[in-house]
Design a protein that fits this description.
Length: 326
């Protein structure tokens, strides 16, 4: 696994919008950028970042702006501005060979999953999942945001589960209105493996496409245990099960050692199916299965590293993650 150069003070973060622009959320976005500057980073935005609409630009333009950041030696890391729905339109115009020649940390969350997943599974370059450039609109930063910054700098310390979480999506400082508790679905309390995953709403659309690098990834790390994580934004329990079923049928779950899922931001079901039932029907009882973990669209959340080795420990309703470069 190729781990790009970590950030240091006065390094420049390039921000592009491979999915939506931030035109409707400029005040929040600028607050986030102020926080990044306070933490010692210089920032560079591509032209489409502040556009409005479902996408920041047409697919080719979005890809060209991404390539601009990877080819520019003055840019030290690349952050996606925000999530959205239609990032897949720009993927056919992305030159993965350019990214291989200029490896840099790429960070995103939600819709950028398809770009991060492709980059890690096909090009063997580690990527950060869990935050976009617009995720840091707090002053002062919550500990989870400080931890993300630590990881960009190469300080990969133990991440421990949080006591409370915010049930409603909002900008600015967090309002913790719910007690947090990981749910372990069997008697397992530990798993270790090479970490891979993302937003399952997005991942299911990659299955069997040219951007599906899962087979390459599993072949490259043949014999190693694989630890999966899934961030469910709004899939119902039934759609969650169907997505996992299709992944299993496509051969994605070879050598799986455990599965982590986060809290669903917009949960739902039309039958007696539950998210817990879906996981058990797909994976059985022999591996660690965790739901309600501190990952995904709700806050606070942990930062995850696609391609890194991850060790998970659980103790009742609590848990921790230790990520390692290997």
């Amino acid at each position: 696994m190729n781990y790009p150069k970590f950030l240091k003070e006065n390094d420049t973060i390039g921000i592009c919008a491979p999915s939506s622009g931030v035109g409707e959320k400029l005040e929040s976005f600028d607050c986030s950028l102020d926080g990044l500057r306070r933490h010692g980073f210089r920032l560079y935005e591509t032209k489409s970042v502040r556009n409005s609409g479902d996408t920041s630009a047409d697919g080719q333009t979005r890809a060209e702006e991404l390539m601009e950041l990877f080819e520019n030696d003055a840019i030290d890391a690349v952050f996606c501005a925000s999530g959205g729905d239609f990032l897949m339109e720009m993927l056919p115009f992305v030159d993965l060979d350019v990214i291989r020649k200029h490896p840099k940390w790429l960070m995103g969350a939600s819709d950028p999953t398809s770009l991060l997943y492709w980059m890690t599974t096909k090009a063997d370059i580690a990527t950060f999942y869990g935050f976009n450039a617009g995720s840091f609109d707090q002053d002062p930063w919550h500990d989870s945001l400080e931890t993300a910054c630590d990881f960009w700098k190469g300080d990969w310390h133990l991440q421990q589960s949080f006591a409370r979480w915010q049930s409603e999506k909002r900008s600015g400082n967090y309002v913790f209105d719910q007690a947090a508790a990981w749910k372990v679905l069997n008697s397992k309390d530990h798993a270790k493996g090479r970490l891979i995953g993302g937003c399952i709403d997005v991942l299911r659309d990659l299955i069997g496409t040219k951007r599906d690098g899962t087979a390459d990834f599993l072949k490259r790390y043949d014999g190693e245990p694989i630890l999966w994580y899934f961030d469910d934004f709004s899939l119902s329990a039934e759609d969650f099960y169907r997505a996992l079923f299709q992944m299993r049928e496509a051969g994605w779950f070879k050598n799986v050692s455990g599965v982590l899922t986060g809290r669903v931001l917009f949960p739902g079901a039309s039958t007696a199916m539950t998210y817990e039932t879906a996981l058990k029907r797909i994976f059985g009882e022999d591996i660690l299965l965790v739901t309600e973990a501190d990952i995904g669209h709700t806050v606070p959340r942990m930062i995850l590293v696609n391609g890194a080795v991850c060790e998970v420990q659980t103790d009742g309703a609590k848990g921790n993650l230790q990520l390692q470069m290997a």
